C-alpha cells in the first residue's frame, strides 16, 4: 500500500500540463507499518519542496502617445515636380510603342549534324518610318544571321538587315508588320542640342525591356573611335552627344530623346572600366541618322566623304616644342597615294621626330580652315566633313605651308571600304 500511495502521488505530478500554475498541495505521507522502510531521497525531496504559488499576471505596456502622420509637401513645392513627372510619364506612353528589343543569333558551324543558330547579342532600336524600318547600332547586328524584334505590346516578329555602316555605327532592320499604335519617332536637329538640357533614354539594359532613364546632356562635340583604316589608323565618329542618363549593355541602338519626344541621338557606347554605366554615355547624333539611314535604306551602304590624310592636332605646346608655323590646326602626317589629298597637292612632312615616345612626321601642311570655317583640331575637321559635305563635293582648304598660307581646292572621294 505504501508503494501504491507513493507511486500515485508521483504519477499525479508527472501528468500535469507543462507550464500550468500548480495549486498548493500536501503530498500524502506513507502509512506506517511494522516494517516501514526509509523513503527514497527523491521522495523525501519531493515531500519537503516549498509550496508552488501562482505566478504574477503579465503586465500590458501602456500605449505610446498618439502621433499624427507627417504632412505632405505643399503644392507650391511639388507642382514643378508633378509637372515634370507628368511630362515623363506622358512621353514614355507616347514613345514606348516605337522602341523595340532586338535579339541577334548567328549561324553555328555543323557539330555532328546540321548547322544551328546560337544567341549572340541583344540590343535596342526604334521605328524610323511607317514602312517598318528600324534604326539600331551596327555593332548590335554585325555578324548576326537572324534578327528577332520585340515590341512593347509583346508582339514578336522576325526582321531582316537592310544595311549597315561601321563608320557611324548605324544599321537598319526591316519588319513586314507593325503592331497597333507603333508609329515612327521624329528626329530633332542635333545642332540645337545644348549641354544641360534633359536627356531621356529608353531601351533594354541587361534585357530589361522598355526601361526609361533620365539625365542631362553633359557634353557635345565628342568623338569615338570608329573602324580601322587601311593604313592602320582609325577613322573617328564625330559630333557624339555625351549624357549622364544611365546607359548599360542592351541600351545600344535605342533612342536618346529630348523632352518633346524627339530623337537627339542613338545610344551607342559607355565610358566604363567595369562594363557597367559609370556616369558617361555616348550617342550618335540625330543629324548623322538623317544623313546615313536614308542611304542605308536605299543602297544598303553609306559613303563617307574622304580626303586621304593622316593627321595630328596642333596646339600651342606642340607648336612651341617643334617650332611649327601655326599655333592651332591639323598637321598632315601622311598623304595616301592617289587619294583626293594627293591629287589636290597637299603635302605631308619629311622629318621624323619623337614626341612622347612616339614618332611624328613633321614639316607637312597644317590645315587651318575648310571653306572658310576655322579648323582648330581634327575633331572640327572631321565634324565638318561628315555634316556639311558629301562625296564628290569640292572644298577649299586653307593650309599653312612654311611661312605662308595657301588655298587648295580638293574634290572629296569616298572612304575606302574596310
Describe it.
- By secondary structure, the protein is α+β, with helices and mostly antiparallel strands.
- It has four domains: 1-6 and 25-51, no CATH class; 96-174, Trypsin-like serine proteases (Thrombin, subunit H, Beta Barrel); 190-299, Trypsin-like serine proteases (Thrombin, subunit H); 305-414, PDZ domain (Pdz3 Domain), CATH 2.30.42.10.
- Helices cover 20% and strands 35% of the residues.
- The chain is built from eight helices and 22 strands.
- The chain has helices at 2-14, 41-48, 75-95, 138-141, 286-299, 316-322, 340-344, 378-388; strands spanning 99-108, 116-127, 133-136, 146-150, 156-165, 170-174, 198-203, 211-228, 234-243, 255-257, 263-270, 281-285, 305-306, 309-314, 329-335, 351-355, 358-362, 366-370, 373-374, 394-401, 404-411, 413-414.
- The strands form five sheets. The protein has a six-stranded antiparallel beta barrel.
- A hairpin with a 2-residue loop joins strand 16 and strand 17 (358-362).
- The longest helix has 21 residues, at 75-95.
- The termini are far apart.
Helix and strand arrangement:
Elements: H1 2-14, H2 41-48, H3 75-95, E1 99-108, E2 116-127, E3 133-136, H4 138-141, E4 146-150, E5 156-165, E6 170-174, E7 198-203, E8 211-228, E9 234-243, E10 255-257, E11 263-270, E12 281-285, H5 286-299, E13 305-306, E14 309-314, H6 316-322, E15 329-335, H7 340-344, E16 351-355, E17 358-362, E18 366-370, E19 373-374, H8 378-388, E20 394-401, E21 404-411, E22 413-414
Antiparallel strand pairs: 1-2, 1-4, 2-3, 3-6, 4-5, 5-6, 7-8, 7-10, 8-9, 9-12, 10-11, 11-12, 13-22, 14-15, 15-18, 16-17, 18-19, 18-20, 20-21
